[in-house]
Amino acid sequence: MDTAQLGRSPRKRRWLRWLLALPLLFAAASVVQVAVLRFVDPPFSAFMVARQFEAWGSGDWSFRVAYDWRDMQGISANLPVAMVAAEDQNFATHSGFDFKAIEKARANNAKGRKVRGASTVSQQVAKNLFLWQGRSWVRKGIEAWYTLLIEAMWPKARILEVYANIAEFGDGIYGAQAAARSYWRKDASRLSLAESARLAAVLPAPRHYSVARPGPFVQRRANWIQRQVRQIGGPAYLQTLD
């Protein structure tokens, strides 16, 4: 073996060690990340950053993300309950993944029916807060990892509080306070059940459906959500969360 080969071999071993260490470094960093956000309110989410850069990339330099954090006490109980009723009625009992909903969605998709996925509130928080938009097995795997961490390290009430603050309710409008101010010029603490249901109704596609000008789908879905809110116990539902 010549001198050049001897020199390259240690370098290769160092690169290999770094490559093997990357998953461990990511795991450690993500644990710290989730642990900190258990107590510290996120100043922004990955989706907010992506949307802002998307606007700048298209030349819209005046675009600004609307986001104003409110603790759960500053948000009308109608909204988080409406979001659970619309998105994840087994939220209080599952551990991050609703396997019955996943199987139901898989069966319906196999029959060619157009249905939503079976993402839980915890998965939505993991995706919106930490990840990028799109569909890939890599992203789904990282989403699952963050979902497990969130469920292990945050109480359910914190998960729902974060979701109510980072969910997108319109193009560039994130969270309860920004939505309440943008659509009704009021504080999030004053959102009615009807208003909260309309916000929750657009969650499948907040840039496609309109809160301000709800079409037939949003109106029907909002009415259904109001009925579901009453079924799961209304605002008293929040008292069942740990």
Polypeptide structure, described:
With 242 residues, this protein is mainly α. It has one domain (42-58, 69-240): Penicillin binding protein transpeptidase fold (Orthogonal Bundle). It is 58% helix and 3% strand. A hairpin with a 2-residue loop joins strand 2 (168-170) and strand 3. Helix 3 runs parallel beside helix 9, helix 5 crosses helix 6 and helix 5 packs across helix 7. 33% of the residues are buried. The mean pLDDT is 88.
Query: How does the major sheet shape up?
Result: 3 strands, mixed
- Biggest sheet strand line-up: 1-3-2
Beta-strand content: under 5%
**What is the second-level CATH architecture?**
Orthogonal Bundle
Silhouette: globular
Using the coordinates above, name the CATH class.
Mainly Alpha
* Total of domains: 1
CATH topology: Penicillin binding protein transpeptidase fold
- The number of distinct helices, counting runs of at least 4 residues, comes to 10
